[in-house]
Amino acid sequence: MRAQFVLSEIGVGLRRNLTMTFAVIVSVALSLALFGGSLLMSDQVSTMKGYWYDKVNVSIFLCNKHDAENDVNCAKGAVTEDQRKQILADLKQMPVVEKVTYESQDEAYKHYKEQFGNSPLAGSLTPDQMQESYRIKLKDPQKYQVIASAFNGRDGVQSVQDQKGILDNLFQLLNLMNRGALGVMAMMLIVALLLIVNTVRVSAFSRRRETGIMRLVGASGFYIQAPFIAEAAVAGLIGGGLACVALVLGRYFTIDHGMDLSHKLTLINFVGWDAVLTKLPLILATSVLMPSLAAFFALRKYLKV
């Protein structure tokens, strides 16, 4: 009987404040969709870091005869055979190095033509203008400075370059975008909480006669509050459900189908469905707890039941 009464009161409350209930549902849905999207963005950045940092190389470019004429780092001339062998031997002895690959001038020229064959500059370059290099895969990509400090300024070395620096700029941009999404989510969450509190207050005011009678006949505080808290929880749950649908459809139409980014951007290792599905229970739980707590504290403060 009590459960039936609570359920009937939930329906009455939702219908009586239909406009504000709709606003609560929309604001909760938007804020939690942004919350879930931010979590997925964080997972995506972590996945990309693990994927790309595992593939980055440190490159040691060796001096050629053209560098000897134009580059102060190669003032002592082009790299000699002895210098080349010594650099390779030192690299192989370093514990941070996992693998060393040598790229000759001809190979460097071939790779350049493959990547920038349409560039006007490509037609004027010759293989002897390209630089020999050692491409080093590190056991820990964070240990780039060990290589840089050991070989920068050495005879025969033109420069030491770390591909990780390029990726760091990309990841900084992605993290900045993620923080921006979190900021918008926080504002939407505040709006949702304010709407929930106002909706509960309006609902309680419109039924102040009923709650007064219930107090007179000895109803407990929780029994009086239960319908209002349940109303907020139901509205929040609907919003959370919409947020879950938005995340699933967003993943489906942007990565798998529609925009089909998984096939168009093959260099990016996108997060899988498992990452999306693990976020849905958290979103649903938040969508119920957040409005329920907001309603509970609003009732305690404003109704004094």
TrEMBL record:
InterPro entries: ABC3_permease_C, FtsX, FtsX_actino, FtsX_ECD
Keyword terms, alphabetized: Cell cycle, Cell division, Cell membrane, Membrane, Transmembrane, Transmembrane helix
Domain FtsX extracellular: 56-160
Annotated transmembrane regions: 21-41, 180-200, 221-249, 280-299
Record-annotated ABC3 transporter permease C-terminal domain positions: 184-304
Cellular localization per UniProt: Cell membrane
Gene3D superfamilies cross-referenced by the UniProt entry: 3.30.70.3040
UniProt-listed Pfam families: FtsX (PF02687), FtsX_ECD (PF18075)
Topology in the lipid bilayer: Multi-pass membrane protein
Family of the protein in this entry: Belongs to the ABC-4 integral membrane protein family. FtsX subfamily.
Role noted for this protein: Part of the ABC transporter FtsEX involved in cellular division.
Subunit note: Forms a membrane-associated complex with FtsE.
NCBIfam families xref list: FtsX_actino (NF038346)
Protein name: Cell division protein FtsX
